[in-house]
Design a protein that fits this description.
Largest sheet: 7 strands, mixed
Structural class: mainly beta
Order of helices and strands: EEEEEEEEEEEEHEEEEEEEEEE
Shape: globular
Distance between the termini: 16 Å
Strand content: over 45%
Number of helices: 1
Oligomer: single chain
Radius of gyration: 17 Å
Strand order of the largest sheet: 1-20-17-22-15-13-14
Number of strands: 22
Length: 243
């Protein structure tokens, strides 16, 4: 079964400096039908104005992944990390027993867009931790690149949960397939562009949950394949394989 989560139906908030969309219930947006999927708890699509950002704030007992779609984030945390996370880089922060951090648009002139993802960890009270790694277009174009996993396989970041995250970039006509083991589930999130998933067309911001499916099959679409589209940038997709 494939269940579409249309971009237009997500929660939304515009704070001036921040334009955000919530796939699942978050902050002032609450919908009991959309509280997460399996261990996946949050997917926020955030656009931050130049020079603006989130001042220091706390987290605990959550695996926090940040995938930068456009621009760069200036990050600082209570573990002593000060870093710039750029487009096509993934950051993993294990909040565990408690951390504080801040996130700002690293540029005073350029926009920032990123997906912030929360995954419920396998246990509470973990030791806080941090990782950051680039996964550029050459590593993800036309293939599913593992970028986060429980065992850090293939150079991926380490997640404290039975979940795996893949990233792919698909030019029009390019196809990828991911086999789901029995009992596994998947979530597909389109960061940009458009793809075909089964009989569905997914566009930027759309998501989809898959259960009782043998595989996830994705195909990049051209503008002519997408009703109303005048252009179709290379698709950028996040695929979560979940217990």
């Amino acid at each position: 079964m494939i269940t579409l989560r249309p971009a237009a139906e997500r929660g939304a908030a515009d704070h001036g400096w921040l334009d955000t969309r919530h796939t699942f219930s978050f902050a002032n947006y609450y919908d009991p039908r959309h509280m997460g999927f399996r261990a996946l708890r949050v997917i926020n699509d955030d656009r931050v104005a130049p020079g603006a950002g989130f001042p220091t704030h706390p987290h605990r007992d959550m695996e926090i992944l940040t995938w930068v779609v456009e621009g760069a984030i200036a990050h600082r945390d209570s573990m002593g990390h000060g870093a710039v996370v750029r487009a096509s880089e993934l950051q993993r922060m294990t909040a565990g027993t408690g951390v504080t951090h801040s996130e700002f648009n690293a540029s005073g002139t350029d926009p920032l867009r990123f997906l912030q993802i929360w995954i419920v960890p396998e246990a509470r009270g973990l030791e806080p931790g941090y990782e950051q790694r680039p996964f550029g277009p050459d590593a993800t174009r036309g293939r599913l690149r593992l970028v986060a996993s429980p065992d850090g396989a293939d150079g991926s970041l380490t997640l404290h949960q039975d979940a795996r995250l893949y990233v792919t970039r698909l030019p029009p006509g390019a196809q990828v397939e991911h086999t789901l083991a029995p009992g596994r589930h998947a979530w597909v999130q389109v960061a940009r562009g458009a793809v075909r998933l089964g009989d569905l067309t997914l566009r930027e911001g759309d998501g989809a949950a898959l259960s009782d499916e043998p595989a996830v099959r994705l195909e990049g679409l051209a503008a002519a394949d997408v009703p109303g589209a005048t252009e179709a940038p290379e698709a950028e997709i996040l695929l979560f394989d979940l217990a």
